[in-house]
Specification:
Blueprint lengths: L14 E6 L2 E6 L15 H18 L3 H9 L31 E2 L5 E2 L2 H6 L28 H11 L3 H10 L6 H7 L6 H6 L11 H14 L17 E15 L6 E23 L10 H5 L3 H13 L1 E7 L4 E18 L5 E18 L2 E6 L4 E7 L9 E11 L10 E5 L3 E3 L13 E2 L3 E2 L5 E2 L7 E4 L3 E2 L17 E10 L2
Length: 500
């Protein structure tokens, strides 16, 4: 059996003059997009400092289990992880609920209420600093942290929290109300000692102290002048670009017919992600071109030769944008499978037929690292480099296998004429799934990059690319081992727009 898991507007161009080997060279830098629309009294420098400060806070809260698990990471109303069949607005959870599946409770007015089972287990929360008893609940879907870029999360906070002081109070003690913050830093999920032992739950405190997190939040507020200003984008949107992409992989094939051995496969995947490109710089298109330039050669040059060399070096530089955050979200949907049939003849008319089915399913949010947009203003061309292979370690792909046996009523002892044996289900990270190559576009295990630079053509403020459906090639294992491998196709699309 083949295993599918293999362990316009163009802006004016600013220039920056630098001295390289005593030669004054003007390097063309890719310009930032225009500022986002809306009212914001912050200066460009204040905005830059605010975005930088929030990136540090966002990196903590989107990766800290005590934060993200309550804000979408855990769904107590479903088994395991993934989408909620009863709530299309709920984000796909990434961590199984450690206790039993909790039924939803509907109140007299048709509104959802906090299940009694949640209160019974999570009955040992940190008490409110204003007195009373804290009540356990998870955040509603519109307050999820999952799949949010720093800019999106920053705007979410600004939209949902009226002022900076209330935001700081929420992170410290929930402003004297249900003390989720205090509970998070206790690390016990609001469970008492007996429940911790019964469910084999280990106390896990956040990797940063309460004081350290408060300082991250305070630094963000201070960068904005000590208060929230303007609209929800104010202090949240950096100069830069949003690079969004989709990679679809589909195909099916089979071999064998009649009563002999058969094998079929299906691959149906979607990888959809986005990067915020907020770091601007320059890069040499061909750094080796000037590597042999020695001081002796420079000293022997005439003034005209030095001027020509400066122009040549300028033409050899390209503007580049890259992400400011180390990780970016990606949504992944996997629906792959294989099916095989083997006919095992026995003595005489006896036989044993086996149909083995293996499926790979998953729909969730993961992370990716690494992207860039490079533009050559001299040649008016661009290129991208997008690493779309998920890097997360969470086991979000459910792998199930079953074998269905059909036997003749004689010749196999006491074995039943029909039985199905299900293997224990396994889970694998998304990154364990191989990604097929498309020569000149998608190679090296999931990197989108054009072998030939593409012409720059912004339409209505967006630079777009669509490969259409193309055959995956050249194929490597496990894809080359599949029957009818030429039926495996890939479609790559991406769009570059300004952050706003």
């Amino acid at each position: 059996m083949v295993a599918l898991i293999h362990h316009e507007r163009r802006h004016a161009v600013p220039t920056a003059c630098v001295f390289v080997l005593a030669i004054a060279v003007c390097i063309v830098a890719l310009p930032p997009p225009a500022s986002a629309a809306g009212t914001c009294p912050l200066s460009p420098e204040q905005t830059r400092k605010s975005v930088t400060a929030f990136d540090k806070l966002a990196s903590f809260i989107t990766h800290e289990p005590r934060c993200v698990n309550c804000h979408g990471g855990v769904n107590p109303h479903i088994d395991e992880t993934g989408l909620d069949p009863e709530d299309p607005n709920a984000p796909p959870s990434i961590v199984p609920h450690g206790g039993d599946k909790q039924p939803r409770q509907i109140g007299k007015n048709g509104e959802r209420e906090i299940p009694v089972g949640c209160q019974d287990c999570h009955n040992s929360m940190a008490p409110p600093t204003g007195g009373g008893k804290s009540r356990w609940m998870t955040a509603p879907p519109f307050m999820t942290f999952l799949g949010k870029t720093p800019t999106a999360l920053c705007k979410q906070f600004r939209r949902q929290i009226p002022n900076a002081q209330e935001f700081l109070g929420h992170l410290w003690d929930d402003n004297g109300k249900n003390n989720f913050s205090g509970t998070a830093f206790n690390g016990d999920r609001g469970l008492d000692a007996a429940t911790l032992k019964a469910y084999n739950v280990t106390i896990e405190k956040p990797r940063l102290t309460r004081e350290a997190v408060r300082k991250l939040a305070q630094d963000w507020v201070d960068a904005q002048g000590g208060r929230f200003n303007g609209d929800e984008a104010c202090g949240c949107v950096p100069d830069g670009w949003l690079l969004s992409y989709d990679v679809e992989i589909r195909g099916d094939g089979a071999r064998g017919s009649g009563g002999g051995s058969k094998f079929s496969w299906t691959i149906d995947r979607l990888y959809a992600g986005r990067f915020e490109l907020t770091r601007n710089g320059v890069v040499a298109k061909n750094p080796a071109e000037f590597a042999k330039m020695s001081p002796e050669k420079l000293a022997a040059m005439t003034p005209q030769q030095i001027l020509d060399l400066g122009k040549q070096m300028t033409a050899n530089m390209a503007g580049i944008w890259s992400p400011g955050a180390p990780e970016s979200p990606i949504n992944v949907v996997i629906n792959d499978g294989t099916k095989s049939f083997d006919h095992g003849p026995g003595e005489g008319d006896s036989f044993e037929d086996v149909t083995t089915t293996r499926t790979y399913k998953g729909a969730n949010v993961d992370e990716v690292r690494g992207a860039s947009y490079t533009e050559d203003r001299v040649a008016n061309t661009y290129n991208v480099s997008i690493r779309m292979r998920p890097t997360g370690k969470r086991p979000l792909v459910l792998v199930e296998e079953s074998a269905e046996y059909t036997r003749s009523p004689f010749g196999f002892g006491d074995k039943p004429t029909h039985e199905t044996i299900n293997e224990p289900p396994k889970r694998e990270p998304f990154g364990q799934l191989d990604i097929p190559d498309v020569k000149g576009l998608l190679e090296n295990g999931g990197v989108i990059h054009h072998t030939v630079d593409q012409p720059v053509n912004f339409v209505n403020g967006a630079l777009s690319f669509d490969s259409g459906w193309v055959v995956a090639w050249p194929l490597k294992p496990p894809f080359s081992d599949l029957p009818q491998p030429d039926r495996l196709k890939v479609r790559v699309t991406y769009k570059l727009t300004r952050l706003e």
